[in-house]
C-alpha cells in the first residue's frame, strides 16, 4: 500500500526513467475528473496571464492522457512562476503534479496524469511547434487528401 501523501512525488519502479512521465500511469489521491483538472489548469494559466493557451483533446487519440495544454510565458521567470503556481494548485486540489524543466524554464512540462501541460518561452515554442505535431484535425485532413490522390 502506498502511504505517500496526495500530491507528493514518489519514486517509480526500479529502472523506470523519471523523465518518462506518461509511463507513471494514473495519479495517486482521490478519484479525479480529467475535465475538472483541465478547468483548473486553464483557470490558473488565465490568472497568470499565459500567452496563446491551446488545449488539445487527447482522449481516444493517445494513451498519454485525456488533455494536453500548450501555453507560453513572456520570459523564463514568467514560465517558472506559472509552472510553480499551477503545480501548487493541482496538489492543493488533491492530485499529483510532476514537473520537468523547471531549472532552465525554457520548456516546463507538468504532468498531472490526465492533463499534460507544456509551458514555453515563445521562441522555444515556435522552434518545437508541438501544436503541429498534436494537431489531429490537420492530420486527419491530410490523410483524406492523400487517399484521394
Topology as H/E string?
Answer: HEEHEEEHHH
- Separation of the first and last Cα atoms: 56 Å
State the major sheet: 5 strands, mixed
Mean pLDDT: 77
Overall form: globular
* Multimerization state: single chain
Q: What portion of the residues fall into strands of 2 or more residues?
A: 15-25%
How many helix segments?
5
Structural class: alpha+beta
Helix content: 25-40%
Strand order of the largest sheet: 1-2-5-4-3
Low-confidence stretches: 1-32, 138-149
Explain this structure:
- With about 150 residues, the chain is α+β, with helices and mostly antiparallel strands.
- About 35% of the residues lie in helices and about 20% in strands.
- It contains 5 helices and 5 strands; from the N terminus they run H-E-E-H-E-E-E-H-H-H.
- Strands 1-2-5-4-3 form a 5-stranded mixed sheet.
- Strand 4 and strand 5 form a beta hairpin.
- Helix 1 packs antiparallel against helix 2.
- The radius of gyration is 16 Å and the shape is globular.
- Residues about 1-30 and about 140-149 have low confidence and may be disordered.
Amino acid at each position: 500500500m502506498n502511504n505517500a501523501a496526495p500530491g507528493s512525488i514518489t519514486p517509480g519502479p526500479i529502472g523506470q526513467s523519471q523523465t518518462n512521465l506518461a509511463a507513471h500511469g494514473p495519479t495517486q489521491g482521490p478519484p479525479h475528473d480529467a475535465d475538472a483538472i483541465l478547468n483548473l489548469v486553464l483557470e490558473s494559466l488565465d490568472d497568470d496571464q499565459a500567452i496563446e493557451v491551446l488545449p488539445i483533446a487527447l482522449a481516444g487519440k493517445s494513451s498519454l492522457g485525456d488533455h494536453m495544454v500548450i501555453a507560453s510565458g513572456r520570459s523564463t521567470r514568467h514560465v517558472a512562476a506559472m509552472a510553480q503556481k499551477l503545480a501548487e494548485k493541482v496538489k492543493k486540489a488533491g492530485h499529483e503534479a510532476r514537473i520537468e524543466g523547471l531549472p532552465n524554464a525554457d520548456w516546463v512540462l507538468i504532468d498531472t496524469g490526465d492533463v499534460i501541460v507544456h509551458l514555453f518561452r515563445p521562441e522555444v515554442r515556435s522552434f518545437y511547434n508541438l501544436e503541429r505535431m498534436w494537431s489531429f484535425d490537420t492530420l486527419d485532413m491530410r490523410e483524406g487528401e492523400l487517399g484521394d490522390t
